[in-house]
Amino acid sequence: MTICVSLIALLLLSLLLSGTALQQQQQSLQSGSLNSRVERAALFQLRSTLGVRTKQWPIKTDPCLTWTGIVCSENGTVTEINISGFKRTNTGSQTPRFSVDSLANFTQLVSFNASGFLLPGSIPDWLGIQVKTLKFLDLRFCEITGGVPYSIGNLTNLSELYLSGNNLMGSIPSSLGMLSRLMVLDLSINSLTGSIPSSFGNLLNLHYLNLSRNSFSSFVPSQLGSLASLVVIDLSFNAFSGRLPKSLGNLRNLSIMMINDNNFTGELPYALWSLPGLRFFDASYNSFLGSLPNISLNANVTRATFNLSHNMFYGVLTNVVRSFSFVDLSYNYFQGKLPDCTRDVAILDRNCFRSCSNQRKLKECALFYSRKGLLFDNFGLTTLRDRKSKHIMIILVVAVFGSLGFTILLATLVILLIVCSRKKRRTSQTGTGVEPAEGYGEMFAYEKIVAATGGFNESNFIRNGHSGDIFMGVLGLGTCIIVKRFDLQSGKNTYTVESDIFSKISHHRFVPLLGHCLEKEKGEFLIYKYMPNGDLSSSLYKNNGSDDDILKSLDWITRLKIAVGAAEGLSYLHHECSPPIVHRDVQASSILLDNKYEVQLGSLSDACTPEGDRNSKRITRLLRLSQTSDQSVSGIATATCAYDVYCFGKVLLELVTGIIGISASNDSTTKDLLEGILSSISTYDKELVTDIMDPTLVVDEDLLEEVWAMAIIAKSCLHPKPSKRPLMRFVLKALENPLKVVREKTTNSTELRASSSNKCSCGGASWRHSLPRQVGGSQLQDSVDRCLSTIKHSKDVFREPLVVQDEERLNED
């Protein structure tokens, strides 16, 4: 999204100008010889100090007539200097510095463009004092350091100021508010801090404001609402906080607004929803909350594209959704029924809709609504005050009929004591331990499972697996368990398959099977030991335990530990079981983690012996015939150990990149993502891996080599030819000694030896763009329309969360 929208912003830079291009072109055609000896000397001094090559500025010619980028007026005075994209001479490139002192001698200079020309150093204070005729100043990507001089505020004729892509630090001087003729201000991609000066409210002619990708904090001043001419405002990727000022709803000419990736809170100003000219609005990755307004926007707004993802909006969807051409509402807390109008125009992933797939956990939704003082009921909102009223009524009824109720209660207690004493005696005789016995473990009574899960209450629901629903439960002695209820309607005998697999394996890398329950009429159940840290997909990023909803990612040592543990389990299945066993569902959600982040594999309902294995029992093969003949979406045969290796390679990439969901999908989007990631993995260039490495990881040089090694191992596992993928035993060996993978030249031929078949045999060992500077301002609206039409349905606009998921955003009670 960022790159795509930045392209729009850069294009608009070429459109938001004063409309004097034609006049200046005529001047350049009518320019005469350079008449001023002072300006001639100043040009030659500038040529020498900057190291401009003879090709651009030949010595023995008239600068006004032949020098590239020099424009003079009819009377022979320099009006424009453009050295954008020039290369220095060899001598000049040895000691480049910001040295443009001779500019002070050009009394009629209106434009200076040095974008892309290296000018290391700070902007001199005299620039705002000596060159007051400047109307256009472009110093983008010049490696400028220091701060923005206060004296820049003296350039009262300035209409366009570009300082993006440098290393500017400090705060914005309030003097910039004196540039009353300013139409374009671009300070993006720097290290500026502090807040936006309230004096910016005086920039009444400002059309374009870009402060993105800095370190601004504090509040956005309400004075920005006075900028009636503003068409584009970009405050993204900063640390702005607090509420968005209501005055921004007065920007009636606003077309593009980007405030994403900040710390904004509170509700969006009501007027923002109906700005007549607003075409693109990105407020994603903030902490906005509140419900959608129940309004229908006017006709001018129906083409708008909104991105409200990764916030805390809640409630039901209202009529405002009908008014957008596209809207991203993912990663919020919306609930209730989906109106038909959302089809094909809305992204709704990770909300609280019960009728949709890919939503938040029920417990997470209920916790969010309870903390907001709202009732989560899937269809609407009820305040806690209403609930308390109901409780008061119940108390009054109990008080009225108290005398009668006391008698009934006393009798009930006596009966319960008798029943409990009998159950206690029965329990002492039969035992209540949950340690698994041989084979399928303990036989659990159906009533015991129902009691443990609260009657399979939705509050105990964890997720829906492809073979059945998974619930959390608590036994009478306080022991936490996981209950898997198999889907009897699927037609697959997955209960038999999974329980049969557990009867054949004995290894500490698999989640312990505590028991089973087989009720002909009520269902089939398997009971497992509870894993405190859930699965890898939900543990890669977790809440830091505070109330600020900041996610903390797993450190590299833990990630490597998880990779080794999972490889141990798969290596056991492939090489120590006879016949070998293929897992067939290797992904982050099947890698379970105990309280010490030790791996215990689960999700074995699809496990089977490899295709064509002669040792598999005839009956077992018949039971699994429909499964073993299946292929994945990508066309890869799943009943082979090579398929397990391929899936494990995707898990390794999740650990390296931090991109959640790679291992859970085989669609075309994931394949394109894999191709992009694998192109940055090279056995010869360690630094390339930093382009794909999880940015939240903090690693030193040695740990970076381990990250590099894991990426190389993953790439080997993802070889398109199954016969070229390494055996899992060699993958395990490489992960146990990752530095040997990158430090020994013989690694590829020995440690990661590729298997010769699909069976699991046990034998054998800074961007920059060049744009036209001036285009008539009347073309602005048409150009905005064309730009938005090319991106509004692009997946780049509504990016998927590549680094974090906020499923664990709320603290657990």
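[next item in queue]
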Amino acid sequence: MARQKSYKAVLHSVTKGFEAVEDNIRIDLPRNPRNHRQIDHSQYLGAGFDAWAIQSIYVIRALLQGGNFSVSTLIGYSVNGLRFFIAFLLGGALDSPPATPNNLDKRHLERFVSWLKLKYPNGSTAKNYYTSFKSLVIVLGEYGFIEADLKDVLPPNPFPNNAKNTNDADPFSMGEMQRLLSALKSDLIAIHKGNFVGNGAEAMSVLLFITAARSGINTTPLLEMARDALVPHPFVPNLRLINTIKRRGKGAQSKTIRQTNLFDEYNTIPLDGVAVLNKALEISKPLVALASEEISSYVWLYRSGQQGGENKIVTLTGGALYVCAKSICERHTLQDDQGERLNLTLSRLRKTMESRLWKLSGGDILEVSSVMGHSPSVADNHYLRMNDEIKADGATFVGEAFPDKLRGIDVTPTPPGGCKDTLYGNKAPKDGVNHCAEFIHCLGCPSYAIVGTLEDLHRLFSYQQFLYAEIEYFLTDEWESWRKRQYSYIRLIDDFTSRKFNGDLVSQARAKAKMAPHLFWAKKIEFMKKKLGGVI
């Protein structure tokens, strides 16, 4: 059995006194979304709990130097965790409060939980503060400052049914989303023409909100997006990939140090979203050379505009985004469906996109979670709200155009089936000249139509053959989630056709597609096979 490393031998012992700790009780922080410049535990010294302040700062510094934890997470250990626990200890709720982490026991934490619940009775605030402190306790234990088995120290499930008490923001309704995007579009036009009335922060916020609405990226990865994040999609010409960094914890365990790994995540974004992101890059390009080294690689740069620092180059933060979102909604007098001022946040945009994906996937939760990049349980608990609009809409595979409605109606043939309006359909250019070419997205488009002829079904099953070929082409591990999505589309095609059309007709069309796929898809399949075989 491998010998376990003793972290006690690495860190200074605090049992020998606290001499000369003032210089080591603060940590200067790198650039971070929470905009904190320093973690300072000197404020906790002299109150009888110096060991908590010193040992916590040691482990936080060690984790920061290790590089596997986000700065925001470590700030939370101190600001949301230790700060409130020290306040609890100073409040006199315990007759014999634990002077050191090693004196901590389950009874202390149970009282702390009760204190938090009384202080923050609504929402998830109490749970969030406890979770931050719990994570700090686990790290203190792993570094040897708590000798007891953490299973005997941590209370089991101190916040049962917390999700029922949490008032998360709902996704936007379709009406709210339409009003919001209309306002953002008018601002985008003004930015493009050079007559936008807002300041630099607002202009960048408009571009960021549109990018968020088109990509669904989380707040921190979006704010930290690098200038070289946009890359070509490996196969689909009408899409681009945005490469962002997201930190994911594996979950706290009592016998291993909690790790937070860094993942490169790829989010697809259509070309209209790419144009908006390129506009942000164009506007901020002259500011790169003037920005500090720690933010010069970021996308969302602008001139501060604050008195005395008008020429200082800064980047969007969560706080600045909150102020700008409020200003945008007030300037356009945006209201929600109840007539109140619209509350615009990135989390609501993400939840709205996820709800839309839920519709397009026919309610397949696994499909939605694979697209959005998190586990099914996270999607189910935090994003997919079964509001009345979703229940009423139903989200069928073919959008608005049901087969029984389309019999006898003229439908324009397309490679995956048909379209009720290739010039002015949902994804068409709508310029009266150019026909829609977004064939990859037909199955999720409300203008998609299929009337159940052999020719229509042959085109649909030819597209299915293309999906199979794509899966074989992209076999590396990083495409696993994407392959799951493709398989779900394959299943959707099988399920839909078996329910809607004659079985003999379906079998005939399927066999024809396998033998001789529609020329459009056959050429793409042939190209992939040649490239895979090294012919080209």
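[queue empty]
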